[in-house]
Design brief:
With 879 residues, this protein is α/β, with parallel strands linked by helices. A hairpin with a 3-residue loop joins β27 and β28. The chain is built from 28 helices and 31 strands.
Length: 879
């Protein structure tokens, strides 16, 4: 055996032993050491491994598997004591999981920490399910919280493989409401569970590359890539043997499936364990009926529950990136025919954010940090583009789309540049996708597609045949002023610069490879990336709802998006631009309106805060219902549709360990004047001293141990704009409730002074606030968005909200909420910011600013709290 083959054999032996040993060893390191010694022993029959080589290979494996390093862990909440039936070592050596695990690491070349994360998560989920080998009835319901486009399918594929290994007989995957997504999921599971896919030459695809199926490991299926469950068919395989079905959430399909399962149960006297996995569990599955009006459960919800009722041993696991609706399902919802509702009563699992996953944090300033210097990847649509789509309100308006508007054309040019640059970076033959999502109406999508084809054909011809075209200069300017400048400033990246001549030559080649697809029920186009896996698919996908949930867009870099919704769960799912963007995150762009971008940013902030809260509550041993209460108490959440929130009542808001800062400012002169007057009145009541704090450079006017009554008076007079984000009345009510239990009774009030001209880039602007003379106002909002109100993004610099906390207490801390908790619960901090009125957005207002009148921003940093949420929030009407 050659040295290369011996090393490969050594690592394979290590892998097989390591996954088993880590389930029975006290530590990851000990499991690895034992697995290495075992691999050395087994390999010795094929060649001598000397000590030097053994140490070298061992170090490489430790590094590859990140053994001994901190890696993101999944978090789990459970409700009640679980029966300890699941043995991870059984799954570790099981045929289906071992094969899938090897396929991910060897064939798909997944990093080991990603495979480990799936292994650990699915072990936790399996432990929360019922024991399929016990004849005792069980009914388990749970929810897995992932990220949009983050690999949830890979996770439930791992769960399916393990479920077959431990004895589950029937697994049903509910895969969205569209045929495309169902077919995509069926193909994936055929490759990665069943192992029956072959390429055009008859070679196995997927897990069958690792081990071909044997007679003892055959999984039947009642569904195929092309065929869902039909009423005309009857499942031929006996459900006593392992069976997998992938079905869409459709009335006819689910009715047929229910009837066939009942028939098989009665005909064969079946009593088998069943696992139902609901992909995109917040879509269609949630019951929106009104029990107060004696309404029956809505169709899809009713049918899923009826299918579960066919079996006495059953488990239901939902997967979603937006758990709001699922956690607001009634805990006590039950009907005679359908049984219990789908509330995740038994467990809630939070998947860790994968390495190299680009989510809300990468696109938005989720920490609301005034010193965040990353270049924005958002391009706001200007009036000419907005006017095109604001006039299209129904399908009959399709003919109003007569030509590609300017920024849609720019987005297409940016997509061309992305492909060219990725090719030059060595990412040739990778998939590249652009998404155009402007309407839910298929007729409108068809019109857009036709015009995009026309515009792209013209662009392509100019590139290939007319070197003197003005288009060339246009592309060069876009490359120089946007693509290149953003890439140079993007953090933690070190990509080489390419000359325009290099990029131009690539553009001429790659424009010939781009196709334009229309993805909806009217079109025969299909996003079959697998068909193009050798050369890579370069595609502009025009669509609507089919592209807004579940369906994966490989290599998505450019998005042109004009759809809005006030529902956070819907908005999040429409964010197809989240995903893995290794090596080209800096090239990604979102073309959308300022309003939609702002809504997405607020959603991103809310989601990060709620995930932190989930981790905190899970560590405290809280239950899924207690997390639902926290969601209701979040200050900016429009969780989901009112129908889905029928079982929940939010009575109060909780600001525990949060920062509230006014980022919206009015164009109304009266509100600006009101807030200046309120601030002067407030400041004149306080004994300020000019001071410097130990870990910040700027000077401040500070007043200590101020009674909460004065803070509440100020908040009653100060008017917040965009009250769904920061609401002074709600904050005042929260302080009231905290005061009742002896919290937030003493406050530090700080008025922040601006930096000198040489640091800010603006001339000094003295401000008088009551008896105080501020040397210069603070520069904020240089890149602010001007719409109905002014959005300056953030006013608080990173260290400013901790000026009243001992630096030693927060040294080394990264989590901002944990830093805030170092402040005593009795104390709060309010920061007041006189803002520089010569910043463009304020300068453009018809307001006569002076030293007596400037825009005033405020920020409040809250410590933790002992307020009992369950006493002030109501959810599910039983908590």
């Amino acid at each position: 055996m050659s040295a290369i083959d011996l090393k490969d054999f050594f690592e394979r032996n290590f892998t097989n032993n390591y996954y088993f040993l880590k389930t029975v060893s006290p530590s990851q390191e000990e499991a690895a050491e034992k697995a290495l010694e075992s691999a050395r022993l087994l390999s010795s029959g094929y060649g001598l491994i000397d000590d030097f080589t053994f140490q070298k290979w061992s170090l490489e494996i430790f590094k590859k598997y990140k053994i001994g390093q901190d890696v993101p862990k999944n978090i789990i909440m459970v409700d009640g004591k679980e029966i300890d039936w699941f043995k991870p070592q059984v799954a570790a050596s099981g045929f289906f999981w071992s094969r899938y695990r090897t396929y991910l690491s060897d064939a798909k070349k997944w990093p080991m920490e990603a495979v480990d994360a799936i292994d650990d998560t699915t072990n936790k989920i399996m432990a929360s399910l019922g024991n399929p080998n016990s004849m005792e009835p069980f009914d388990k319901r749970g929810l897995v919280l992932g990220y949009v486009q983050s690999g949830k399918t890979a996770n439930f594929t791992g769960l399916i493989n393990k479920a077959y290994d431990v004895g589950y007989k029937l697994i049903i995957v509910l895969s969205g409401i569209h045929n495309d997504l169902r077919a995509q999921t069926q193909i994936r599971l055929n490759e990665e569970v069943i192992g029956n896919r072959k390429d055009k030459n008859g070679n196995p695809i997927g897990v069958a590359q690792v081990y071909e199926n044997t007679a003892d490991h055959i999984i039947s299926s009642w569904t195929t890539e092309d065929e869902d469950i039909k009423s005309s068919q009857r499942g031929t395989s006996n459900l006593n043997s392992p069976t997998l079905m992938v079905v869409k959430k459709n009335k006819t399909v689910l009715e047929s499936l229910r009837d066939q399962l009942i028939n098989h149960r009665d005909l064969y006297k079946l009593d088998i364990p069943v696992l139902i996995i609901d992909d995109e569990a917040d879509q269609a599955s949630v019951d929106t009926s009104n029990p107060d009006k004696n309404e029956d459960p809505k169709t899809i919800n009713r049918l899923i529950r009826q299918i579960l009722e066919v079996f006495s041993r059953k488990a239901f696991v939902g997967y979603t990136a937006t758990p709001f609706a699922n956690l607001l399902i009634s805990k006590v919802g039950r009907t005679e025919e359908e049984g219990d509702d789908l509330y995740p009563k038994d467990f809630l699992v939070g998947l860790p954010k994968p390495n190299e996953y680009c989510g809300p944090e990468e696109y938005f300033n989720v920490e609301e940090d005034a010193e965040d210097t990353r270049p924005s990847l958002i391009r706001h649509l200007r009036q000419e583009d907005l006017e095109v789509f604001t006039t299209i309100k129904k399908k009959a308006d399709a003919d109003k789309f007569e030509e590609v508007p300017p920024q849609m054309r720019e987005a297409i040019l940016a997509f061309l540049l992305v492909i060219a640059v990725r090719n030059l970076r060595g990412q040739r033959k990778k998939h590249n996708s652009m998404l155009i999502h402007t309407s839910r109406f298929k007729d409108v999508q068809s019109s857009v597609k036709d015009e995009v084809v026309r515009a792209f054909d013209a662009i392509s011809k100019q590139l290939q045949y007319n070197p003197e075209s003005s288009l060339i200069n246009e592309l060069q300017e876009l490359y120089k002023n946007d693509i290149l400048s953003t890439s140079r400033e993007w953090p933690n990246e070190n990509h080489p610069d390419f000359s325009w001549d290099e990029v131009y030559e690539e553009l001429r080649k790659c424009c010939e490879t781009i196709q334009v697809f229309e993805i909806n029920g009217n079109s025969k186009d299909a996003l079959d990336y697998h068909q193009y896996k050798e050369e890579g698919l370069n595609v502009i996908a025009v669509g609507g709802d089919k592209l807004s949930r579940g369906l994966t867009l490989e290599g998505l870099s450019i998005t042109y998006y004009f759809r809005n919704t006030l529902m956070y769960d819907t908005l999040m799912q429409m964010g197809r631009w989240f995903g893995y963007r290794k090596g080209y995150m800096d090239l990604c762009r979102i073309y959308t309106s300022a309003e939609i971008a702002s809504n997405f940013e607020h959603l991103a902030i809310a989601m990060i805060q709620l995930r932190h809260e989930f981790e905190r509550l899970a560590e405290k041993g809280k239950t899924p219902s207690e997390y639902a209460i926290k969601m209701l108490s979040h200050p900016t959440m429009k969780l989901t549709s009112p129908l889905k929130m029928r079982n929940a009542v939010s009575t109060n808001i909780n600001y525990s360990a949060m920062l509230q800062q006014t980022r919206f400012f009015p164009r109304d002169e009266q509100i600006i004047k009101n807030n200046m007057i309120a601030t002067k009145k407030f400041s004149n009541k306080l004994p300020f001293v000019k001071t410097k704090f130990p870990h910040v450079k700027t000077s401040y006017f500070a007043s200590f141990d101020i009674d909460a009554k004065l803070i509440k008076e100020y908040l009653s007079e100060y008017r917040t704009v965009g009250s769904e984000i920061v609401n002074s009345d709600e904050i005042s009510r929260y302080i009231d409730r905290a005061n009742d239990i002896g919290e937030l009774i003493n406050w530090t009030v700080v008025i922040v002074e601006g930096e000198p001209t040489e640091n800010s880039g603006f001339p000094d602007y003295p401000v008088n606030i009551g008896n105080l003379s501020i040397k210069t106002a603070i520069v904020r909002g240089k890149n602010a968005v001007l719409k109905n109100n002014i959005d300056i993004k953030a006013i608080v610099s990173p260290n400013q909200e901790y000026i009243d906390i001992d630096p030693k207490k927060i040294k080394g801390m990264k989590d901002r909420a944990e830093k805030r908790k170092q402040r005593h619960k009795k104390k709060g901090l309010i920061l007041i910011y006189p803002l520089h009125p010569q910043v463009d957005v304020f300068k453009s207002l018809d307001v006569e600013f002076s030293s007596q009148l400037v825009p005033i921003g405020i920020a409040i940093s809250f410590p933790g709290t002992d307020l009992d949420d369950t006493s002030i929030y109501q959810t599910n009407k039983t908590v």
